């Protein structure tokens, strides 16, 4: 009887530790995994497993300060492995059942999270529908992108110098996918598991934006049905490469009743000059088979090629099967401006005099709602000069909203709780330089250096329902 092993990362053990369980999919789930529908067949052919040879001197790997390069650190060489069925001949990954995000969470049954026993202890088994419902916390697609950028900003303390956002094409079907890549410290196998699980975080810094270990899942699932992550990590001379797949499509198509995440890990062997797979051959092969079936890449060679531009350390996130809007087009518009990513059909209509319409529509207070470049320019209050936000190959120019004000006043805000002052914040308040021709007002609230409420309107205490500044 055939079984395929995958890693279940939805467990919440009572001890609060990450507990990775190897589960076995039943044969009918294996069959559904190996075919896109009842009429299509998948043939698995024997394929030589790719091992990789380090292209630089061994001492460079042993040093934690390997310089970043645009070339691959690893030159790929083939070596035979018997009975290694590693390639998928499926021409296209199965599309989500529904490509519209706000309708994709509809299930025909009432399955949900449930409690199961593992090693005599209770643990939470989370149903895949939670991935979608959890992502509905993001009403706005740009807010989801910002969550992913926060992870890169938090990596500045580990030497990150850039985060790049771009469009790439899914090699399976030619459809656009969203790429987010940074040159931070990367993730080792354990950190990768925590990233793709729920409620785990290793961020201890008080300045870190991410705190709760949930942002990656909510943001990626809000942008598309599937995400694949590539990360290279160098620590104490040990080089690892990890690949993980969080696929709503896979979970729906195989009728999984829990969230499972196919994942493979490699470690560079300084003795042989090769990449060794971790966690045993059977475990590695079963997870790799899932990756080849449901990711945009049909061979192990194509998977490993994604590390070519990562350098000595860093992370690459690719969100594919992007969601559609109600008009049946991708929610993210890559065609309107080749140097920008826009939200399809979301240009805000301005109610004003015809002579003032253009100046209002072009103001940053309106454009940030549908232009990612404008939104990123105000997303962070301060950015180190050594760090760059890059959108579609062009650096995003930072913009300080306070510079848009005339007649500014600086007010010291001292929030109190139970009679104890919690902190002090200097608030800048003023009029837009274009006022009164531009009718835009509200508070731009930053928390931990990050914009969380752009142009937020507050109701007047004296006039219920009327929106004006307090």
UniProtKB/TrEMBL annotation:
Localisation per UniProt entry: Nucleus
GO cellular component terms, A-Z: nucleus
Keywords assigned by UniProt, alphabetized: ATP-binding, Chromatin regulator, Coiled coil, DNA damage, DNA repair, Endonuclease, Hydrolase, Nuclease, Nucleotide-binding, Nucleus, RNA-binding, RNA-mediated gene silencing
Keyword Heme: no
InterPro entries: HATPase_C_sf, MORC_ATPase, Morc_S5
UniProt record, GO biological process: chromatin organization; DNA repair; positive regulation of defense response; regulatory ncRNA-mediated gene silencing
Keyword Hydrolase (UniProt): yes
Record domain Morc S5: where: 370-456
Recorded family membership: Belongs to the MORC ATPase protein family.
The protein's name: Morc S5 domain-containing protein
The species this protein was found in: Cannabis sativa
């Amino acid at each position: 009887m055939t079984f395929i092993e995958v890693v279940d990362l939805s467990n919440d053990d009572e001890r609060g530790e990450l507990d990775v369980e190897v589960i076995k999919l039943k044969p009918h789930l294996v069959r559904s995994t190996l075919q896109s529908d009842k009429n299509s067949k998948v043939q698995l052919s024997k394929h030589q497993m790719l091992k990789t040879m380090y292209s630089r001197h061994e001492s460079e790997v042993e040093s934690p300060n390997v310089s970043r390069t645009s070339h691959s650190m690893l030159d790929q060489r083939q070596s035979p492995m018997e009975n290694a069925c590693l390639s998928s001949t499926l021409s296209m990954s199965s599309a989500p059942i529904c490509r519209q995000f706000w309708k994709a969470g509809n299930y025909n049954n009432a399955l949900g999270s449930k409690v199961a026993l593992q090693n005599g202890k209770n643990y939470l088994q989370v149903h895949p529908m939670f991935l979608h419902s959890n992502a509905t916390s993001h009403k706005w697609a740009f807010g989801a992108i910002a969550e992913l950028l926060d992870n890169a900003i938090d990596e500045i303390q580990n030497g990150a110098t850039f985060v790049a956002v771009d469009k790439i094409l899914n090699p399976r079907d030619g459809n656009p996918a969203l790429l987010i890549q940074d040159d931070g410290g990367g993730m080792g196998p354990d950190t990768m598991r925590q990233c793709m699980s729920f409620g785990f975080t290793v961020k201890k810094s008080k300045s870190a934006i991410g705190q709760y270990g949930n942002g990656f899942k909510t943001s990626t699932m809000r942008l598309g049905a599937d995400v694949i992550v590539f990360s290279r990590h160098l620590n104490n001379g040990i080089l690892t490469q990890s690949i993980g797949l969080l696929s709503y499509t896979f979970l729906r198509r195989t009728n999984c009743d829990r969230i499972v995440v196919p994942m493979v890990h490699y470690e560079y062997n300084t003795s042989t000059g090769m990449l060794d797979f971790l966690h045993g051959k059977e475990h590695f092969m079963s997870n790799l088979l899932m990756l080849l079936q449901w990711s945009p890449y049909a061979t192990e060679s194509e998977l490993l090629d994604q590390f070519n531009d990562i350098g000595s350390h860093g992370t690459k996130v690719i969100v594919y099967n992007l969601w559609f809007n109600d008009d049946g087009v991708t929610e993210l518009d890559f065609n309107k401006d080749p140097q920008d990513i826009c939200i399809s059909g979301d240009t805000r209509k301005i109610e004003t005099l015809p002579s003032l319409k253009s100046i209002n529509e072009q103001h940053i207070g309106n454009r940030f709602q549908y232009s990612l470049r404008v939104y990123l320019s105000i997303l962070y209050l301060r950015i180190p000069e050594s760090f760059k936000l890059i959108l579609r190959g062009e650096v995003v120019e930072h913009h300080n909203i306070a510079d848009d004000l005339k007649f500014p006043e600086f007010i010291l805000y001292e929030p109190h709780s139970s009679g104890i002052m919690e902190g002090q914040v200097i608030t800048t308040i003023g009029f837009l330089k274009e006022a009164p021709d531009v009718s835009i007002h509200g508070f731009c609230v930053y928390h931990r250096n990050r914009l969380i409420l752009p142009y937020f309107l507050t109701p007047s205490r004296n006039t219920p329902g009327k929106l004006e500044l307090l």
